[in-house]
Amino acid sequence: MTKEIRFNAFAMNCVGHMAPGLWRHPRDRSERYVDLNYWTDLARLLERGKFDGLFLADVLGPYDVYRGSADAAIHSGIQMPVNDPLLLVSGMATVTEHLGFGVTGASRRGKDFAAKHAECLFVSAPSAGLVRNYVRELRQRAAELGRKEILIFVMFTIIVAPTESAALAKLQEYRSYIDYQGALTLMSGWTGVDLGKIDLDEELRPANTNANQSALESFTTGDPNRRWKIREIAEFVGLGGRSPVVVGSPAQLADLLQQWMEETDVDGFNLAYAVMPETYEDIISLLSAGNASWKNSFGSLIGHRCF
């Protein structure tokens, strides 16, 4: 039987999130993040599209690892300024009935905590193989703790259009706005490694840091068959962060999402945006129409609880 696909949106209370530089896109509206109507409009859109929930990311302080200062983050607007995500939840809850809200580790300690306490959680990695390993480990740890079910979402960015050629054209349009220095600023902050000190054509190597261990592992030791140069990391992270960007027609993407669920054993997708709210509007209007596995009724797992 085809497994039901669950969708969450992934956003942040700032101008731009996982697509550095795309806040400059003429159709992007994320500069309105300080307006509550921006968030209540998004909540209504997601509920109309039968999303399960909205994950709201947060960060403590500016990204200041890249070249030893916050200058690049300030210049490029890399997840800053940023406001408290919890302040948005009550406003969005008042205009929806079924949308859940979560405030967001795949570090070893994070996995242990999630396996013990979480109802649902998300992972991010650049390949299906790495995601499958994370999911297997999380489910095993949950089972060892006597837990029968947790829902696991993988982060994706979806670019969909009526035809494959139109979707590829949109991808190229989006890529023209990427801030590659901003991408390296993000990755430096996530990994704790100053990528500004490494030549673009050198490989990223393992290091001991106090930052996000899974972020560094994903681009170094996580896949023994893949070595990432700094230039490649900037290009990958520049659209979608640490997770894949998938592009195509509704039918192509419906098949691809189902394939990922079968290969990785995830329960759904935590969807970042390229352009706000265009990314979610496209998904809801096009992908849902072409995907028979899309949820046709609202679940009751998380309701309006914060987790």
Describe the structure.
- The structure is a single chain.
- The protein has 307 residues and is of the alpha/beta class.
- The chain has one domain (6-290): Alpha-Beta Barrel (TIM Barrel), CATH 3.20.20.30.
- Helices cover 38% and strands 13% of the residues.
- The chain is built from 11 helices and 7 strands.
- The protein has helices at 36-48, 71-76, 86-93, 108-117, 128-144, 164-175, 180-191, 213-218, 230-237, 250-264, 278-287, and strands at 6-12, 53-57, 100-103, 120-123, 151-160, 245-248, 268-272.
- Strands 1, 2, 3, 4, 5, 6 and 7 form a 7-stranded parallel β-sheet that branches.
- The longest helix has 17 residues, at 128-144.
- The radius of gyration is 18 Å and the shape is globular.
- The model is unreliable at 295-307 (pLDDT under 50).
Helix tally?
A: 11
Quote the average pLDDT: 88
Rough shape?
globular
The major pleated sheet works out as: 7 strands, parallel
Q: Tell me the radius of gyration.
A: 18 Å
Strand segment tally: 7
Strand content: 5-15%
Order of helices and strands: EHEHHEHEHEHHHHEHEH
What CATH first level would be assigned? Alpha Beta
Oligomer: single chain
Could you name the CATH topology? TIM Barrel
Number of self-contained structural domains: 1
Low-confidence segments, ≥5 residues, pLDDT <50?
A: 295-307
Straight-line N-to-C gap: 30 Å
Based on secondary structure, the structural category is alpha/beta
Helix content: 25-40%
